[in-house]
Amino acid sequence: MPAGEYFACHGSGRGVGECTARGEIVVEHRIAERVANPRDTEAALDWQLERVGSTAWQDWSLKFQRMAFGYAQDSGWHDPADALKWLDHHALLREGAAPRGALVWYQAADRVRVACSLGSGQMVGPLPCGQVGVATLTELSTDYVWSDPHFPFGH
Questions:
Q1: CB atoms within 10 A of CB 155
Q2: Which stretches of the chain score pLDDT less than 50?
C-alpha cells in the first residue's frame, strides 16, 4: 500500500488498508502523506556535521533536525515528545538499527530527544551535554526508536 493514500469506505473491509463500517459510523485509516524533504539525506548530514561543537542548538534537537532537512518554518510539533506521539499514532516508528539518515528518537536527561543516524550506531545532533556532536546511541540511551526524516507540517 503506497504511502500518502487515504482510504474511505462505506462497506465492510477486511484486508490491509481497508475500512470497516458499522451502521452509520465509517472508520477510515489514514496513511500520513509522504513528501521529499527540501534537503536530501546526505546534504542534511553535511549540514549537521558542519555544526559539530556548536552550543547554539542546546535543547532544540527537533528544530535542529527540521532545519537540517531544509525546513525553515515550524514543524507543527511543540517538542520531540509531541512529534514522537504523532509518529507513533501514525505507525511511523520502527525499532532496531537505524539506517543512515533516519531520525533517532531517544530518552535522555528526563526528556525525549531526536538526532540523525550516521549508520553503524552513530548519530549526530544536539546532545544532552549541550552541544552538537557525534555520539554512539548506546552511550546515550537504551530506549530508542527511529523514523524516516518525516516533517509532515514543515515548510
A1: 10
A2: 1-23, 26-33
